[in-house]
Specification:
Layout lengths: L3 H22 L13 E2 L9 E3 L1 H9 L3 H11 L7 E7 L3 E6 L1 H13 L14 E5 L11 H19 L3 E8 L4 H17 L16 H14 L8 H26 L6 E4 H6 L2 H11 L3 E4 L2 E4 L1 H11 L4 H5 L6 E4 L7 H15 L4 E7 L3 H13 L4 H4 E6 L2 E5 L2 E2 L12 H7 L2 H8 L8 E4 H4 L7 H21 L18 H22 L4 H20 L7 H25 L8
Parallel strand pairs: 5-6, 5-11, 6-7, 11-12, 13-15
Antiparallel strand pairs: 1-2, 2-4, 3-4, 8-9, 9-10, 13-14
Helix pairs in contact: 1-3, 2-3, 5-17, 5-20, 6-7, 6-8, 10-13, 11-14, 19-21, 19-22, 20-21, 20-22, 21-22
Length: 582
């Protein structure tokens, strides 16, 4: 079993139950009682490696004080051949278990058995999950917000796959709607300004100001000359939007590929409109009684849907009435469907047409008001959006340089583009930093720290631990000491506090993976790797390897190599390199 902590917990529970049954058989405790005690890792390792609450949980039904129950259990525990060397009674009635060397050796064996898959579990049991992330408007370069969402979504999908989910990564291309209309208008205005006498052509107030728009307009002018000077709006709108998208989308793919992100699918919003899927979805909402017409537009009864959702979730009628709930337009009076209508259709497509069991979207925190509305709309279609659609809201990134914030604004063309960022720092640093805190926390990204090569830089700190082990292995191999197999190591020799803590941290990795998947928080992997690297550095500084007696030298060499394998495993999940030299 790869999760040695879980295996030990289950064994401790079985041993305690067996002790109770033996004691009951001798008449020392009442027989036949179902007692649900827990086995947990104590916060203070001085209280053992595991602690059972069986005696306290069963004291009432057994009619015996908990410490007395614990003592009887202790007297009847049989630890021979188990993961435990001894057990002790502590506090109000805890049974504290202490690992035997065979447990420590079992951790080394578990990693050795499957270095790349170590930590994996079957928590997801093949559940089909789509993770949609970035999905930036294709109207300009990828920017810093996309950089954080990219690594969060990509790493979360990797973590979920390790936890047994059947994952799918998707980018939703917003190639229809108002932002594309503004995109074409912006290109058109810059194009007209390039024409003789067009210097004063007005630029739309809500247009995109970036230098990239000027470059697109220049490219369009170079290809078509003045032929679009008098073109009807319908034609230049369509052709300039197409021209811009055909150039921007490959750049987005290239930026994301450089960032080590590959999608299973790039899904185009326009396909939903062209296939009639948006119209069909809106019609279905109408058939279920959730739409109405007003002022020539078609509205969604969002208030009614949200009222039902909140009442199901436990809010009182009074609480719901105090909320400022509003309905949403699905189809404007001019017959054009809104972005919200397309978004509902897109998510219906995910669940109904493509059969995903769960959908996870990584969104910026500014979209928080959209979450409940979309879930409620899917509820209205009978798709259980409240239960199956998960939104991971991502807080802002504060970019710092020389200790001062670097201002960003896509509208004014001063956004920090992803490709510019990756020209300044390594992809490894970017991916590690952007995943270094939970999505719910704002992130300070210090450009100066990201390029430093010292222990203050977390990615350097972790990568250096891996490289340090690789150098150690190479040097010892040159002296004739090769890494032994786990079953050739006497784990009892790994007896110092630093060695034991390091092995226990290695054993914690499967649990960290499970919790990262459960909580949709891949930053747990960063924190784990930083802690593991710290434990390794402490071990390396406290425990000599070279010059020790051969059996101890090889045992410590095996431990170091096991750390290397787990560091590489975790860095791989983050999409970060595990260098052999630095």
């Amino acid at each position: 079993m790869s999760n040695m902590i879980q295996a030990a917990k289950e064994q401790a529970a079985r041993l305690t139950q067996a002790a109770y049954e033996r004691a009951a058989g001798e008449g020392l405790l009442p027989a036949g009682q179902a007692i649900q005690g827990s086995v947990e890792v104590p916060k203070d390792s001085r209280n053992g490696d595991l602690a059972s609450s069986f005696a306290m949980a069963g004291a009432k039904v057994l009619g015996t004080p908990p410490r007395q129950v614990a003592q009887i259990l202790l007297d009847h525990l049989e630890l021979e051949g188990s993961y435990f060397q001894r057990a002790e009674l502590a506090g109000p009635g805890f049974l504290n278990f202490f690992y035997d060397p065979r447990w420590y050796g079992g951790v080394l064996s578990a990693v050795e058995a499957d270095p790349q898959g170590y930590g994996s579990c079957d928590e997801g049991r093949g559940t089909r999950v789509m993770v949609e992330f970035v999905s930036a408007n294709p109207t300009g370069p990828m920017h810093m917000g996309n950089a954080r969402g990219g690594v969060l979504g990509d790493t979360l999908a990797n973590v979920l796959r390790r936890a047994g989910y059947d994952t799918w990564k998707e980018f939703y291309v917003n190639d229809a709607g108002n932002q594309i209309h503004k995109f074409a208008q912006s290109i058109h205005a810059r194009y007209m300004q390039l024409l003789p006498g067009g210097e004063g052509y007005p630029f739309p107030e809500e247009g995109y100001q970036g230098e990239d728009i000027r470059e697109l307009a220049q490219g369009f002018y170079e290809q078509y000359g003045e032929s679009y000077r008098d073109a009807p709006e319908e034609k230049w709108q369509a052709d300039m939007a197409r021209f811009g998208l055909e150039r921007n989308l490959p750049k987005m793919r290239e930026d994301l590929r450089r960032y080590r992100i590959e999608y299973d699918e790039w899904f185009f919003e326009s396909s939903l409109h062209e296939s009639g899927y948006v119209a069909q979805t809106v019609e279905l909402l109408g058939q279920r009684g959730w739409t109405y017409e007003r002022d020539g537009a078609l509205w969604l009864d969002t208030k009614g849907l949200l009222r039902e959702k909140y009442l199901r979730e436990g809010k009182t009628q009074e609480q719901v009435e105090k909320l400022d709930l509003k309905d949403d337009v699905l189809r404007r009076a001019n017959g054009v469907y809104t972005y919200f209508a397309a978004d509902i259709a897109y998510h219906r497509n995910k669940f109904e047409a493509r059969g995903f069991d769960r959908v996870i979207n990584v969104w910026g925190a500014d979209h928080h008001g959209h979450v409940a509305r979309l879930q409620a709309a899917l509820d209205g279609l009978g798709l259980d959006g409240s239960g199956r659609l998960v939104i991971v809201l991502m807080q802002l990134v504060n970019l710092l340089q020389d200790g001062k914030p670097v201002r960003m604004s896509k509208r004014t063309g001063k956004a920090i583009a992803l490709h510019d960022l990756l020209d300044e720092i390594s992809v490894d640093a970017a991916r590690y930093y952007f995943n270094n805190r939970a999505a719910t926390s704002p992130l300070d990204f210090d450009l100066d720290l990201a390029v430093r090569q010292d222990a203050d830089n977390p990615v350097y700190y972790v990568q250096y631990a891996h490289a340090r082990i690789c150098s150690l292995l190479a040097n010892l191999a040159g002296e004739g000491d090769m890494v032994p197999a786990a079953d050739e190591v006497d784990a009892a020799l790994l007896a110092t506090g630093e060695e034991r803590e390091l092995i226990k941290n290695l054993a914690q990795y499967p649990q960290e993976l499970r919790l990262a998947a459960r909580d949709y928080d891949p930053s747990r992997i960063n924190r784990y790797l930083t802690a593991l690297a710290g434990d390794f550095h402490r071990f390396y500084n406290a425990c000599r390897i070279r010059g020790e007696e051969r059996a101890l030298r090889l045992a410590r060499l095996k431990l170091a190599d096991t750390v290397r394998l787990v560091l590489a495993n975790g860095l791989g999940l983050l999409g970060v390199a595990a260098p052999e030299k630095m």
